[in-house]
Amino acid sequence: MPDRMTENNMATPHIAIAGRAIGPSHPPYIIAEMSANHLGRYEHAVEILERAAEAGADAVKLQTYRADTITIDHDGPGFRIEDGPWAGRTLYQLYEDAQMPWEWHAPLMARGHELGIAVFSSPFDETAVDLLASLGAPAYKIASFEAIDLPLIRYVAQQGKPMIVSTGMASADEIVAAHDAAMTSDGGVALLHCISGYPTPIGQANLRTIPDLARRFPNTVIGLSDHTLGTVAAATAIALGAAIIEKHVTLSRADGGPDAAFSLEPGELRTLVTDCRAAWEALGSPEERMQESEKTSTPFRRSLYAVADIAEGEPFTRENVRSIRPGYGLRPERIADLLGKPARRPIKRGEPIIEAAVAW
Predict the structure, then answer these.
(1) Most exposed of 7, 96, 222, 335 (fewest Cβ within 10 Å)?
(2) Please, what are the domains in the chain?
(3) What residues have CB less than 8 Å from 292, skipping those under 6 apart?
């Protein structure tokens, strides 16, 4: 991948969606991806939205397309899925079942506003962008499979809203091209490291890509679109610098559906939110300074103490002075200065050796 870093352009990257600042210096932004888990039932979609809000997610993401805008009804070579969770179906059949009716978008966005959770979507063609723009979508997501569709990315960028681009399957040069196309937007850009395996084996998550993307795109927010099972990869990604986590969610994997097998249930989503925010808090800062929680522990560090009674004028030796806990005496490294010096006054066993007790 070409290196995009410049010496003079190193400000901490950030974007904002619906007033929520997103970037390394802010708590992680958690996106619950509804995808096809609505199962074709509006009430089901609303409940996913409500449960995601209860779990503490910052946003719910939809997908906006029709089967005939994303493919054609055809069973020829390449149009039938040969393996994976959707094997045996044609592309048209999959998307016809998975598509979200366009008339749902407005009420779902309105319900999200009532709940205080952002609702935006991945558009898959220009008509979908137009619909979302008419509804005042606060952001746009470019799915991994569309990351090579530069005309679509540029059309989305014209809306001037924040853009999030997933990088699954993309080569180094393709990521640069998608990023540059998206950067024509006035709303800012985020790149999500993504492995487009459904599910992704944990050993293929390749999370070290996250700091590499941050190094190569220093003015861009970096995150993770996670298709592994569970929440470990997401929390680990935060420790590596991810500022956004996107994860598929469902009410219950037992409900079935195209994406159910690699989706989180609401309780698991809550765990992800809690763990990711705790991971971010744990990062802290690189300062080497005592934290508040440490202050009560400082008396139990080692220091120099009399381990035998010492008479006035008696020299300090390794037999009558040792480095032990607690920490009210001279620091342990002062032992070399202390040995051989006379005591200024009598010192009892168990008494700390302090400056005033030594005839320097």
Answers:
(1) 7
(2) 15-283 (3.20.20.70), 292-357 (3.90.1210.10)
(3) none
